[in-house]
Amino acid sequence: MREHARAAWPHEACGLLVRPGPDARAGRLRVQPCHNLAPDPEHAYVIDPELFLRLDRLAGRLGGGVIGTWHSHPHGDPRPSARDAREAWPGWSYVIMGVSADAMTPPRAWWRTATAWVEQPIDVVACAVDDFTVPVPPGQE
Amino acid sequence: MAHVTLRVPTPLQPYADGRREIAVQAATVNALLDTVAADHESLIQRIRTRDGALRPYVNIFVRRTDIRELDGLDTELHDGDEVIVMPSVAGG
Question: Does the distance separating the beta carbons of A91 and B92 come in below 8 Å?
């Protein structure tokens, strides 16, 4: 996440948080970096819908699923923006890192309820994070 | 009417009693949504507006094609079709 966020600056970096198995506590949380498809990537991110769908299906077969996203804020504030609130899915987790030209804040994690953000301890959300590469199905390379 | 499967991705599963897919008989996408609304009204409220239009941050794919490139909610369904609801995953 950090490398992706640093490389993407001054654009927003983004990705998905995946629970690859049915047990929310024992399973390792995995991170999938994604291309940012937003037309204004300095201020927004849009996850590739086909990648999301593929990953959601793959994790679903294992009893898990996509449980949230992570992204960077190139203005340096790791708190949810107004646009984050507008487009957030209730029940999902959102990890945000603030990035500037020469610094990066620690990531902060936010759980979205129907109406508000609740900050989560980062060790619960991001412990044992590693990369999760998605096999591309034949014919979709 | 065609026998089709509605795929429900994780952000919308809480509105579908946790189900990942729902088997439906319907002739069009709109008819499918009407049928599903009988049991999962809150799910369909997140897909269609009160006026019956597709919500801007939601896409629906039939036969791997966005229905906005077909006949929209009037897109006809065939036996075995997979109808995928694809919410926008985005922020700022």
Answer: no
